[in-house]
Amino acid sequence: MMQYQVWRGTPSPLGASVKKRGVNFALFSESAEKVELCLYDENEKETARIAIREHTNHVWHCFVVDLKPGQLYGYRVHGPYAPEQGQRFNPNKLLIDPYARATSGPIKWDPAVFGYEIGHEKEDLAFDQRDSAPFIPKSIVVDSRFDWADDSAPETPWHETVIYEMHVKGFTKLMKDVPAELRGTYAGLGHPAAIKYLKELGVTAVELLPIHKFADDEYLVQKGLHNYWGYSTVNFFSPDWKYSHSPKLGSQVKEFKEMVKALHAEGIEVILDVVYNHTAEGNHMGPTLSFKGIDNKAYYRLVSDSPRHYMDYTGTGNSLNVINHHTLRMIMDSLRYWVSEMHVDGFRFDLASTLARGFHEVNQLNAFFGIIQQDPVLSEVKLIAEPWDLGEGGYQVGQFPNQWTEWNDKYRDTVRGFWKGDEGKIADLGFRLMGSSDLYEHSGRRPFASINFITAHDGFTLNDLVSYNQKHNEANLEDNKDGNDNNHSWNCGAEGLTDDKDVIGLRARMRKNFLATLFLSQGVPMLVAGDEWGRSQGGNNNAYCQDNEISWLNWDKADRELLDFAKSLIQLRKDHRIFCRRNFFQGEKIRRGENKDLLWFSPDGNEMSDEAWSQDFAKSVGILMNGQALHERNGKNERILDDNFIWLLNASHVPVEFSFPQEAVPENWSRVFDTNETWPQNESQIDLKESYTLAPRSTVLLRQSQLATR
């Protein structure tokens, strides 16, 4: 063992901090009796074990002279092993620093990584004495210095934002324009070829599936599968090593920063999907990797009358204890770190309702939201909630605070149901296409509080949604029993079609219908990577464990017509403020004497009556959007005008003949697109004095230029 000069150090900041003379180490544990710092060489051989003597306000700290960046380390924490009392200390288990900025390779699953003796009749009550160090990733001391040069956040306004949900590896793994050694890495996503595609598509932000250090779950490894999505966090400060192309220890930090810098240079924001609601340590039978062995009672929500067990609002075995001030501080420190040090632009919070829970119930005003609202750093970035969890009262769509946006599953379900041909969807569709004012306007929120999506990583791809009636998750090796049974598609109205060309044509039309609906709706559109060109997962609607061609984007199979159509829709949205308003349409609420900014009409051309809205059988509707009544102003306080648009939607199985409302001045109208026809389409003139026949399962957009009035 090597000998090091050790000073008392400081309790702040937590983690391993590089100083001029060495490295300061600080670890929080309010119940520990003794803490040891273990140092390792590059071959992960232990070179020193240092008993930390100093502890201040439950923080154990020391300063090791002459240590350098790249140093590997871990902790052993002593205390009672008493699961019945919520204590699970076991110094035989090497523990990952919760504040580690980087970690070495994967967890090597072995009985030694569990705090109890596996197979013992007392289950998790049986203390295990095996050393877990050979199987646990080591924490890495990181040099945080980086030349950001003139990097600056794009700060795209919410109403102009177009989100692209993607996986760092899957996006470039098969992208031939990216050098082979960079594919599937942070550097691959930051490569000019990848960024060029994103720019040409027109998205303004990438939302990355979890990149925090996560576990390949043991049960998956045993089956030869891998955790692809990453919703099994081990550490909240470390970018996962799997997406680094360099073998150098800790290089993932620099590579991540370089990726962000490259995306920012082209005006593209970076949003992280973060999982602060639970960790990879699971329930009482799970492994001891970090938090569980450092201070189980502080980090996790335990059952009050049975602290051996964990509160589970997530379906994953445990829930982080945001009631504890130090655990809450860790989450906030992590968020600030990713903004201040890694320059990310926002977060999407997985199962965010869990973070809003007080002692049990969901409470908007708990400490987590209050601190974020007051934080000078976090209050300025994009905050997206998945507004539900699996616990009682966890469904909170429309209930998050004003600074937050939300994944709007009501939008998803209504739009899917409408295009499927379900009855009784028209009234709800009216709210969803126009920003869901019924969910957000009452609390003073804007249309962009609604993150609109048709598909997400969890479920069918857009192509599979219109191609399969049942899920096909056989590759997950769970007898096709996993995945959401309610996430079925429907054969998209192909019943009775005997010609394969007709079926293929209908599916192509349905894909365009969904894309058009997504990008013409008020709110913030979220597009899943590859949906713009018809990516398929072969009907797998739960590809969380498929780190292979099932999940990776196969660019050779891209449907160029669909891709070009998607690009045109995004550009249309950017060119016309009327599709991305900052305020809700007022419709009937426009004061007398002004033109309505929005009018819904039936195929007969008459404005939708209360009776028409309530008709269960109605499956067709028209919308007149008045660009001259936009009622918004730019930064110079000048009135913003736009073109007028008519949007026709027909979800029925038969053609529908539309007449136009008398409020629409008939001159100077042209057709932008009709999803029943191939793309591209010339913008042909339309005479509103004549009717327009809308094909079954199709949508049409008409435009009246107002350039002369601007």
Short summary of the structure?
By secondary structure, the protein is of the alpha/beta class. 20% of the residues lie in helices and 18% in strands.
List the topology elements:
Elements: E1 6-7, E2 15-18, E3 22-28, E4 34-40, E5 46-52, E6 54-56, E7 59-65, E8 72-78, E9 81-82, E10 87-88, E11 139-140, E12 163-166, H1 168-172, H2 186-189, H3 192-201, E13 205-208, H4 218-222, H5 251-265, E14 269-274, H6 291-299, E15 302-303, E16 306-310, H7 325-340, E17 346-349, H8 367-374, E18 382-385, E19 405-407, H9 409-420, H10 426-433, H11 437-440, E20 450-452, H12 462-465, H13 500-520, E21 524-528, H14 560-575, E22 598-601, H15 610-613, E23 620-625, E24 644-650, E25 656-658, E26 669-674, E27 684-686, E28 692-694, E29 698-704
Parallel strand pairs: 12-13, 12-21, 13-14, 14-17, 17-18, 18-19, 19-20, 20-21
Antiparallel strand pairs: 1-7, 2-3, 3-7, 4-5, 4-8, 6-7, 8-11, 9-10, 15-16, 22-23, 23-24, 24-29, 25-28, 26-27, 26-29
Helix pairs in contact: 9-10, 13-14
